Amino acid sequence: RNPGDAWAWFNLAELYRGHRAGRLRLERLRSAGRRATAPEAEIPGPEWAAGEPEDPIIVAAALKAVELDPEYYFYRDFLARLYWEAGMEAEAAREVERSFALLPDPGSHVLIASDRVPEALIGPALRGIEHAETHPLIDPRAVVLARAEFLLDQGHIDESIAALEEVRDSGALEAVMELDLRIGQLHQRAGRDEAGVRFLERVLEADPEGDLATRALYSLGESYRRLGRLDRAVEAFREHLVRRPHISRSYLALADAYTRRGSNSEAESLYRNALQRFPSDERVHLWWIRFLEQQERWYDATRAAEEAVRAMDSEDAHRALERLQKRAPERPD
Predict the structure, then answer these.
(1) Nearest one of 215, 224, 302, 305 to 260, comparing CA atoms
(2) How far apart are CA 316 and CA 179, in angstroms?
(3) Per residue in 167-187, pLDDT tens?
(4) Helix-helix angle 176-189:193-206, to 10 degrees
(5) Beta-carbon neighbour count of residue 252 at 10 Å?
(6) Torsion angle of alpha carbons 197, 200, 205, 209, nearest 10°?
């Protein structure tokens, strides 16, 4: 009823797009049913097809939404996806670039960047992020982090690290600690723990009591553990637990480090403490069962699995119990 309402035009486009998808799927189901010789016959064809009767209405409504509110990135994402589905690569690239220029944060572009974007759209998205630097209301720091995050989402870990290091070394940003944390964690993700430790330890040295340092402690513990520096891993995880006693993974990480170091009594005490604090946490129960299995304490492990089933009734708990019951553990003397 309001021709000047951009959101109404978008909803109209979405309505017709849903109608198109439903109609096409119903047609394929009917077609497959006529041809099928077995119940499991495949349904061929894509979910979307260009040149359908609804297409002109969908595109016209989307264009009208963009015309009425050209600064809203979401409408441009929607239009870009329509163009891409219709095989109009140049038009899709144009809208992607404009959309990322309006809002560089990759996490906001759920219509086109919820997973790996097509290779042909990576360049336009990056150009859009670069253009965002000129926007008076967008923090340049946010642009750099958005570029790094986008590259990471596309699997370009080294390029993401390089983008962060360039800004860090230039001194253009004040949040050096946050950049060090991100760079360190990216090195970890790439399997370069030695390189990651250097950046993470910088965070800890710069502000030992800060929140970023607390996050760095957990990451450091993971790297120390993988590098075989178990004493250092225990130290880092223990300090993280002191700062984050309300998080179950703090207990589990430290207990696992104790186990790897051979400190089984400390690990067992920690697991029991975690079970008391987090009685409904599935991971705590499953890690406790695994610990008992590693110790070949089959009776105790079976009892732990029974308790897990009573506490959560999860599939993993049932599988653990079934696995242990096959051993028919007997009560120890």
Answers:
(1) 224
(2) 38
(3) 776 664 456 888 889 889 989
(4) 160
(5) 23
(6) -130
